[in-house]
Write a structure and sequence with these properties.
With 88 residues, the protein is mostly helical. The protein contains two helices and no strands. It starts with a helix and ends with a helix.
Length: 88
Amino acid sequence: MTVSDALFNEAQVIKDTNSTLAEIQETLALSLVDSLKDGDHVTTPTVIKMLKDLEDMQLKYYDRLEDNENTQGAIENQEQSGDEETAE
């Protein structure tokens, strides 16, 4: 497995994880709305904290994905440079 393949696979895992986190976030948001409608003010702060934690996790994954894409781009540039030097 090449570094490019590993980075591509990692990017897919990150995207899948973020998708799952978004689904969990949506479920929690709906739960928050229900608890507010029911007047359950004990649960509300807990759900809000969980939503914030999920958002923080997503932001970290987006940062990692950006790093991953930058690394992939650098590798592709190096490969292109090597191909151009070989052609000359």
